[in-house]
What we know:
The complex is a heterodimer. Chain A is of the alpha+beta class.
Amino acid sequence: MTRCAVLSWLATFALAALVAPPPARGDEGKDVNAANERAMKAAAAAVAPMVVKIETAGGLEVVGGGKKAGPAGPPTPGVARGTGPTTGLVVDADGFVITSSFNFANKPTDIFVTVPGRPTRLVAKVVATDQTRMLTLLKIDAHGLPVPIAYPKATVQVGQWALALGRTLDPNTDHPASISAGIISATNRLWGKGLQTDAKVSPANYGGPLVALDGRVFGVLVPAAPRAEGEAAGFEWYDSGIGFAIPLEDVFAKLPQLKTGANLRRGLLGITPQSPDVYTAQPVIGAIQPDSAAERAGVKVGDTILVIDGKQVPNFSAVQHILGPKYEGDVVKLKVRRGEKEIEFSSISLLGTSTTFVNAFLGLLPLRDDPTPGVQIRFVYPKSPAEAAGLKEGDRITQIGRADTKILVPVRNRQELSTALAQLSPGTEIRIEVKRKEGGKVETVTAKLTTIPDTIPEKLPLPSSAGKAMESPPKGKGPVIPAPAPAPKKDGLPKEKSSITTTEHVLFQDDPFAPKKDDKKEKVETGFLTRSDDVVGREYWVYVPDNYDANVSHGMIVWFHAAGQGGKDGEKMARTFRAFCEDYHFILMGPKAQNAQGWVPSETEVVMQDVKRVLGQYTVDRTRVVAHGMGNGGQMAFYVGFNVRDVFRGVATVGSVLGTAPKENVANQPLGFFIAVGDKDPLLKDVQASKAALDERRFPVVYRELKEFGKEYLDEKTFAELLNWFDSLDRI
Amino acid sequence: MRTRVVIPNLVLIALVHAPGRGAAADPFVEVCETVNAKTVKIFGAGGFSRLNNFGTGILVSPDGHILTIASQMLDTSDLVVHLYDGRRMRAEVVVVEPELDAALIRIKVEGKKPDEPTGLELPFFDFAEAARRPHATPGDWILGFSNQFEIALRDEPVSAQRGVIAAYTKLSGRQGVFDFPYTGDVYVVDAITNNPGAGGGPLTDRKGGLLGLIGREIRNTQTDTWLNYAIPVGAKVTVTIRVKEKNKEEEKTLNLNLPDFVSQAIQGKYRAYNRVKPPPGEGGWTGIVFVPNILARTPAYVEDVIPASPAAKAGLKPDDLISFVDGEPVVSIASFQEYLRSRTRAGTMIRLEVRRGEALQTIEMTLGVPPVRPIPVAPPVKKP
Lengths: 732, 384
């Protein structure tokens, strides 16, 4: 009996040795979380004295979007700014504080800073803003402040604990800073500018530090999004587990410059890719902004970028990753392939702003879906260069070239003509070979390109299409308009502004606008159709005119309904546009906002899935895809227009405010605007400001103010203008 | 001999298999188990519009007393709770204290009178003991438990979440466009705890010690973002309320706290006042004339000071910017006036921090009574 018991005792002992924890040392041995918790609190406490509270007075209620349209009006995709204090981080013992520009996006009139352990508030001044990282440097009259230690950027690893500290929640700066705990989710985010964390980042800690467990600081918390710009971009991800921080090491590196009061801008090379696919296509340059860093250095359209700063770049995304974090004045090394040669540019100094690209205008509408080589003229704009040159309806343009070279190259279709002109700036003289409708005589005329006017033709002739979209347009290697021989210049030096442009213009490589070819003769759905996707719970409607013909390329209007109108206004819109859609070959579709409050920018991706589905099903002319909306819907139209540049060629809005700063105008992705607003609309001033912002970027804008209109849709006259504007988007 | 050997044997097994092993493997496992046993799902009125008919509560006595938030959901005679083990019981409201946003309900057992013990012997939180511990501080690890989104089925444990205390601070939130009534301290947490049906769930430390009661879905007025907070076990508020007793209205200043509420309510002794909504006050008078208030947030710049007014006596000058009142930021003229209207009356002393040039000056003033305004002479009405 005894022996048995002893054995069992031994067995238990062995079992105990197997499963028992290592010898307990206080709390820690029993609970693996105790040490972590203690380390977190210690790290936060070490940095808290450097985390200051920022308070502001005055300023706007809503930032990053439009204002509320009156107390009863729908809110806009903007961000309502809370009234609480925000957070900053000391970066210099002599009173310099860095913080998120979000905290001042409402343009406050006065800023006050409270430093932990110091009883009084101090008046703060804005010293400078880093516009690439959305950080603002403040100066307060204080000395001997503690300064955090930066965690070396190169050694940050995904998975490390990360604490987000803030001063918003507890107004008392002698209390601990507020804490959210998470890990580093990714490094090198936002095109190499930021770290990502799953700690909760929100207005409660924007401007505060992201702290490592050893008390060093990873970075400064900011709202950010990889595909948007502006102070409030990325706000919609607050508390989602997706947060960003700008490495403190980078902040320290730029501090001397910021202290001088210099605002830091992004360094631009001034190139756009030829292919919208930035991930797999080779990085071939599709367009170069005039007078940009790239042009000054002698980089040319058609060059394939091989290496930047010693790193191979297989695609345009890789180019963006290297150029993304660069500032104005930074120098890059570039190696490109041009034809059979490899050319190296050893030091290209990036510019802060590229000279804005301005679309050139000849003044005609081409006949669509025409497989005959050349471009038949459907309409000549009154008082345009085309009219001055004596071009007439029905004439066929066959060749084109710069007037100063005497060389003409053939243009086979309207896409080639438009691509050719997209590379030239207003003021350029061109020669056009034309086959006359009357008599069939071939003549060469000269025209001087202008800018796109803000007038719309009163009546456009029909037909607009030759009805042969399914016949393959002639293809081949694109023609090149030869430029004059370059003036001799020294190697490696940026070209003088006065020297003659030497860019060779590859007119046409592959036809991105060509209607999708579909040999299958299947019956397509027409009429007013409602579609839904049960998986993602989305629905949209589409109106396809009953006279739809796959041989006629159709324009497409994507209607963004006003807040709260989701789906309800579809049939009404279809009725309103029916005659137009039938006569001028347009498809109308209406995606639906997910909440009654209206559209939010984050819906862009799902909306685009709907749009692309319709684009794939019908013959759609990619030069006439328009985002159209009213009120909050118009704001969404602006947003998608700017953010899905490869799809939209026009944005038409009624009573809508531009939510974010407009992006650059790009040569091969033209974007036109039609902006209407009632003169009784409370947002009138803001809409006017939006128009001014677009003018500044030299976008073609048509602006109409409706007399005695508040928040209604368009009057008859303006509606007729809008329809003609839709139909004339493929103007050349 | 046998006994001597067997006893250490049992002790060892206890050491190895009981809390020790589970805790070392993952300490949260056992905590979640224990806390869940003291947490209940509550079902009541609602289910339409945005009002949920489900919520969460914690057991605070073995007899079936449940603490939850003062939700509209309790406004029914058909209250049901689901215990951890799936038992479905009827319940009734004992007492509600809106100022603490707390309510005590009690499980009804068939055949027992309301004042009789239920004989249930349920696991429960010792509320008084929890309230005696010092409050948690930022960085402390927390767990939240709730019937959020009604995910848990009848006999399933509620959803557990992990996070840290972000702050222990005063609540400044709003529900819709209204300021939230509870004005005491709260725990703000970095987990997304405050979801539909989560209100009333326990917030605990990492060892399962009760810290507070998960609150409602409200927006933080400071950041205009959703707020995740819990009302702490030691919640205290001082409120002035108007009560109606024996047809007489009078004003009362009350010091309320959650531990007293719970212990008195369990004993059936908590007294709820019959409240009357206070008439809108006029607030104290400063004598400051502000610049024209034209913007959404016109900064509170002083344009002029009425002679002999409290502002004049305190030394305010034209062009001063009122930046803080009693330590709270003044973002606009409207927010300053709202502060005066809602928080002060004639005779109240306020402390202003005023920006004059590049420095802040502290100015104290005792508010006065607004001068009687002359009645505007009505223009003669034209008759058609």
